[in-house]
Amino acid sequence: MALDTLSEFIDAIDRIGELHRITQPVKVHLEITEIADRVSKMPGGGKALLFEHVILRDGSRSQYPVAINLFGSMRRMSLALGVEKLDEIGARITALMDLKVPDGLMGKLSLLPRLLEVSKFPPRVKGGTPSCQEIVWQGDEIDLDKIPVLHCWPEDGGPYVTMTAVVSKDPVRGIRNVGMYRVQQLGKKTVAMHWQRHKTGAEHMRQMAERGEKMPVCIVVGSDPASMFSASAPLPPNIDEFLFAGFLRKDPVRLAKAVTNDLEVPADAEFVIEGYIDPAEELIVEGPFGDHTGFYSEADLYPKVHVTAVTMRRNAVYSTTIVGRPPMEDFYLGHATERIFLPLLKLTTPEIVDYHMPAEGGFHNLVFVSIDKKYPGHADKVMHALWGQGLMSLAKVLVVVDKEINVRNPVEAWWVALNNMDPQRDVRFTMGPVDVLDHASRAFTYGSKMGIDATRKWPEEGFTRAWPKVIEMDAATKRAVDAKWASLGLPPVSPT
């Protein structure tokens, strides 16, 4: 059964024993961040937190509780998407991609369930007054100071709405985009929209500017967990995130028309901040911001959003997240993306067996890739293929290893890589786009990347020495020690 609301998600987390309620007064200014940061760095990601007594910046008590670290464990991430293991979703995508038409009537009939899987989850617009509009602020009622927006880190430029789903629309083709962009609160009725130049929302704004039109936007805060995740997913520009959320949920997302513009938002969202951007206006300073790299990103110029309405559910819960020195909640969101999109990566680079972006690398700084090596120079081919694909083009360091290496275990991956590489022979350098948050690059969004070929070397690659065997105990001895382990008085150990 799909989880339809944020409250249902929180209740489900509570039932599995991974929710901690905090009833003591806690400030939105820095204190919630400090508590959540400590909890998220506990083994396994710590518990989800629900702050029930939140103190606003003016010292008053918030009407709305604050939920944070909801996605911050492997178990909760799987719960959010309705699976036991995240690889189950990748398997569904793999099955969908294998749609070659079989011979014979029975073979063709066997294809129908997979075709139905593609077509049955488009979002649906709900009639009547949706729960996300049980309360509506317009005009002088609009006051973002009443919402518990966190001031996360001491040198941040201001309070930030972080766990967002920002809805915009291509003005020519009418294709919707939903992106997770941070939003800085500037005043009671204005915010700054941080979307980097390569993001789809930014492209929509450029198109609106060319047309000389104002751009409507809706900032959704808190909805069904699949839609919240989908806003962060690196989908192709033509794929509707709410359609993808329906696929993940195995149930369509229910939408409703916004109050002050023609965009559609999740009907059961907790909060929706409606507004518009005027591309003719001067950009405004946004930032600094304590980012997922663990460093502050610098202030820069971004568009201002004029808020035209704030709508919400009665008894709404404000969901948020924080980023900073890893590991934090965003690691688990990123891990879900990694597992779900592996089949799509294999579609263009089929020799890839697995890949992993460890928390310490902040996603874009380090990617381990295992491949089924078939010919000399195969690792080089994979490196350049990955640097030519979407957000993987921002990867600063790619480490390529052989297929039997468990890249999800960075200790094993580094052990193999550092033993298998000759620095002069096996390291490649190239130039290209880098993440906007990369403070070490030689220029803004442009710099160098490094690829390490840590596969076994072939004679054609200039290696003529014997390649050594990995040390491993024989199976019979392992079984014998397993049988007597309990009698040795030693603690249990994980199997190797």
TrEMBL record:
<dbReference type="InterPro" id="IPR048304">
    <property type="entry name" value="UbiD_Rift_dom"/>
</dbReference>
<dbReference type="InterPro" id="IPR002830">
    <property type="entry name" value="UbiD"/>
</dbReference>
<feature type="domain" description="3-octaprenyl-4-hydroxybenzoate carboxy-lyase-like N-terminal">
    <location>
        <begin position="10"/>
        <end position="93"/>
    </location>
</feature>
<feature type="domain" description="3-octaprenyl-4-hydroxybenzoate carboxy-lyase-like Rift-related">
    <location>
        <begin position="125"/>
        <end position="326"/>
    </location>
</feature>
<dbReference type="InterPro" id="IPR022390">
    <property type="entry name" value="HBDC"/>
</dbReference>
<dbReference type="InterPro" id="IPR049383">
    <property type="entry name" value="UbiD-like_N"/>
</dbReference>
<dbReference type="GO" id="GO:0008694">
    <property type="term" value="F:4-hydroxy-3-polyprenylbenzoate decarboxylase activity"/>
</dbReference>
<dbReference type="InterPro" id="IPR049381">
    <property type="entry name" value="UbiD-like_C"/>
</dbReference>
<dbReference type="Pfam" id="PF20695">
    <property type="entry name" value="UbiD_N"/>
</dbReference>
<comment type="similarity">
    <text>Belongs to the UbiD family.</text>
</comment>
<dbReference type="GO" id="GO:0005829">
    <property type="term" value="C:cytosol"/>
</dbReference>
<dbReference type="Pfam" id="PF01977">
    <property type="entry name" value="UbiD"/>
</dbReference>
<dbReference type="GO" id="GO:0006744">
    <property type="term" value="P:ubiquinone biosynthetic process"/>
</dbReference>
<dbReference type="Pfam" id="PF20696">
    <property type="entry name" value="UbiD_C"/>
</dbReference>
<protein>
    <recommendedName>
        <fullName>Menaquinone biosynthesis decarboxylase</fullName>
    </recommendedName>
</protein>
<feature type="domain" description="3-octaprenyl-4-hydroxybenzoate carboxy-lyase-like C-terminal">
    <location>
        <begin position="332"/>
        <end position="454"/>
    </location>
</feature>
